[in-house]
Design goal:
The protein is of the alpha/beta class. It is built from 10 helices and 13 strands. It has helices at 42-52, 67-72, 77-85, 89-100, 115-121, 147-158, 217-225, 236-245, 265-278, 283-295, and strands at 11-15, 36-37, 40-41, 57-62, 103-108, 132-135, 139-142, 162-167, 177-183, 188-196, 207-215, 251-254, 258-261. The strands form 3 sheets. A 9-stranded mixed sheet has the order 5-4-1-6-11-8-12-10-9, with helices on both faces. A two-stranded antiparallel sheet has the order 2-3. Helix 7 crosses helix 8 (236-245). The longest helix has 14 residues, at 265-278. The radius of gyration is 20 Å and the shape is globular. The relative contact order is 0.16.
Length: 299
């Protein structure tokens, strides 16, 4: 199959091989992606975003300790039979929807050699000539239009790699890869370069790359020959820099969403509050309890 920039984006790669040390001891025996926001694991929100954007196939890049993710998106016939016996139709339907959302594939990253290496591990499941979405498992975006759908819309206009950008505020730039470039509109930037974790005074903007991408076969080819950095890891960001150094185009879509970094403890708690306040079954009692907690002078 010859590459056409007009190919529909049908697949998404989700690199989920990281250790999650920031959430120890909670992640000692479970993947960080399986920590729950209200009643769903973080990774399910990410998958639901991809599916809502039209993605049909999900490729998880996992590690030895991530079997729970595979189990979560598989059928559990014993549990389904018990729910059916007890007449819990809503719960049964909810479980079945998880495994039916998309086609799922799982591949292990053989060594922790960076996010670029993780993406390369998924190549057996991706046609070498097709563009693909990349979604990392830490971020949840509360948006009317899924952030991945926003990226796909921009890709369908330009047919070049697209990066989700989010304004993280000047004081936080040293924790992110920060984009520079030319603003084309309120939501779109033509990327000119990246600065990885810059000092405040060196940051070209406060627009950070935040774990959602559309990459083209050209990026995949660069990753195959991309040299590891000083830490010995192959980075997707380095492939983007190589791509730009060749004079090729790349764009940044400023995400129209509220972002929760669920790899950060405070942000994870805020996500639980935000989604708890919107949950149809949880919200009434949660609002009362939260109001009481905030009014308690001992807190």
């Amino acid at each position: 199959m010859l590459y056409s920039p007009y190919m529909k984006i049908r697949k998404a790669i989700l690199p989920v091989a990281g250790m999650g040390t920031r959430f120890l001891p909670a992640t000692k025996a479970q993947p960080k992606e399986m920590l729950t926001v209200v009643d769903k694991p973080v990774i399910q929100y990410v998958v639901e975003e991809a599916v809502a954007a039209g993605i049909e196939e999900i490729i998880f890049v996992t590690s030895l300790t991530k079997r729970a993710i595979e189990d979560h998106f598989d059928r559990n016939f014993e549990l389904e039979a018990r729910l059916k016996e007890k007449g819990k139709k809503d719960e049964l339907d909810g479980l079945r929807r998880i495994s039916e959302m998309a086609k799922f594939a799982f591949v292990r990253q053989q060594a922790p050699l960076g996010d670029g290496h993780a993406i390369l591990s998924a190549l057996p499941f991706v046609d070498p000539n097709e563009p693909v979405a990349i979604l990392f498992g830490d971020d949840i975006f509360d948006a009317k239009v899924p952030v991945t759908a926003q990226l796909i819309a921009s890709y369908e206009k330009y047919h070049d790699p697209i990066i989700a950008l989010y304004d993280v505020g000047r004081k936080n730039v040293s924790s992110y890869g920060i984009a520079s470039g030319k603003k084309l509109s309120k939501e779109l930037m033509e990327i000119g370069g990246f600065v990885e974790k810059p000092k405040l005074e060196d940051a070209p903007s406060s627009l950070a790359a935040v774990g959602r991408y559309i990459i083209t076969p050209e990026i995949m080819e660069i990753l195959k020959t991309q040299k590891p950095g000083k830490d010995g890891e192959i980075r997707l960001a380095d492939a983007f820099i190589t791509h730009l150094s060749r004079g090729a185009a790349m764009y940044g879509r400023i995400a129209d969403a509220v972002r929760y970094d669920c790899g950060n403890k405070a942000q994870f708690l805020l996500a639980n509050i935000a989604y708890g306040l919107k949950h149809p079954k949880v919200a009434p009692d949660f609002k009362k309890g939260l109001k009481k907690l905030l009014s308690d002078t001992r807190v």
